[in-house]
Amino acid sequence: MSAARWHVGCDRCDAGGWIGPRAGAVDAWCEACQRPQSLAAGAAAVCAVCGTSLATEGLRAEELYGGIQHLAAVVEAWRGNPAPLGALLPDRPRFLTDLSPPAAEAGDDAATVAALEALATGAFGAARARLEAVLERSPRAARLWRALAVAYERLDEPGFGEWAWTRSLEHLDSPVARLARGALRARRGEFTGAGADFERAGPAFEARWNRAALIVLEAVAHTPGLPAAELLARARAEVADLTSYWSSPSVGRLLWAALTERAGLLPPRARAAARPPQAASCADERVLRAAELELEFDTFWDRALVVHGYAALGLAGEAARTGAALAYDLAASLVGEPCLGGAAARPIAAATEAAAGAIRAGDPGAALEALAPLLAREDLKRYRMPCGHCGSGSIGVDEVDDEAAD
């Protein structure tokens, strides 16, 4: 059975070794000792020298710089600056649609082929003009109305896009057109029409998610506080196969985003920065605290979403409560990374420990000062660690063999 293998090496000396399975054994790497080791198949992956967990599938050190970035962004939000954390958060679409351009078919004339080629290559303005001309001659071609609708949407012309999807549906009912028109209707607040489209969009995940999203967003639009529990249960029942993957949609994630957006659109109000966490400074704060409990997952991305929301709304007490807790957990994880156990990594380890200590002491400013040198290190930016053998190079994965044989 074949499996990937990784070679770890220094860019200045010959220190290094392979990681991954081979016939009857597993090659491993100690990220603390920076030495290769060989394990019998099924043996515990623990360094015989220092007792550190061995790397057998890539290097954990490659995640170190990203972890430091995440920690710094959370601490910034804790201090009231949500921008760095906002730049890390995924942009999850509220409604799922398929804007793939339809392909040319046998029998299409030259003008139609040229129009569809323009759409496929991203020349949306040219495609719109060509398609409008073609449809003047062939107004019953549902496929070309779909193409024109895609061009309008890509050009950020939702009103024309909705009109073109409607023309396409007049000639051929399809889940793709129902999803697209329903999403455009929902975005402009026409929930009844959107619901009718989504109900006829079929059983695929995209349709089920859109129906769930519509329930959530309509409830947020029409309910001053938190949507009723039965509505959220209905939404979750539509999409029972949600996952915790960082960019996947979920009812709780969408609910949080919609509520923070709604709170930000309301008239400004006093949000007392010095209020203790147990005392809500406004109705929005009470609703958002309840919405925290509706998040289905406890990943970094879910907790970061909450910290960012509070910071963006200026709810300093809540940003500090949630941000400090998340920062504490991230810092504890960083301090325990195997790659920080060796002598060459002592300056990095000292900085992470200083940041962790500042976080425990409730001092986000000092934590950021400790992290700043790490964010500037070129070796960490390149997902490498200082080499403990030559003292002048950096060590990391320099080769991957995806076709390694037994």
Task: Describe the protein in words.
It contains 17 helices and six strands. It has a six-stranded antiparallel β-sheet with strand order 4-3-2-1-6-5, with no helix packed on it. With 406 residues, it is α+β, with helices and mostly antiparallel strands. The longest helix is centred in the C-terminal third of the chain and has 20 residues, at 316-335. A hairpin with a 4-residue loop joins strand 3 and strand 4. It has helices spanning 64-78, 83-88, 110-120, 124-137, 142-154, 158-171, 175-187, 191-199, 205-222, 229-238, 251-265, 283-292, 300-312, 316-335, 346-360, 364-375, 378-381, and strands at residues 5-10, 16-22, 25-30, 35-40, 385-386, 394-401. The protein is 52% helix and 9% strand. Helix 7 (175-187) packs parallel to helix 9 (205-222), helix 9 (205-222) packs antiparallel against helix 10 and helix 11 runs parallel beside helix 13.
List the helices and strands and how they pair.
Blueprint: E1 5-10, E2 16-22, E3 25-30, E4 35-40, H1 64-78, H2 83-88, H3 110-120, H4 124-137, H5 142-154, H6 158-171, H7 175-187, H8 191-199, H9 205-222, H10 229-238, H11 251-265, H12 283-292, H13 300-312, H14 316-335, H15 346-360, H16 364-375, H17 378-381, E5 385-386, E6 394-401
Antiparallel strand pairs: 1-2, 1-6, 2-3, 3-4, 5-6
Characteristic key phrases:
alpha+beta, six-stranded antiparallel beta sheet, 9% strand, 52% helix, 406 residues, 17 helices
Unreliable stretches: 267-280
Separate helix tally: 17
- Beta-strand percent range: 5-15%
Radius of gyration: 27 Å
Number of E-type strands: 6
First and last CA, distance: 6 Å
- The 3D shape can be described as globular
Largest sheet: 6 strands, antiparallel
Strands ordered across the widest β-sheet: 4-3-2-1-6-5
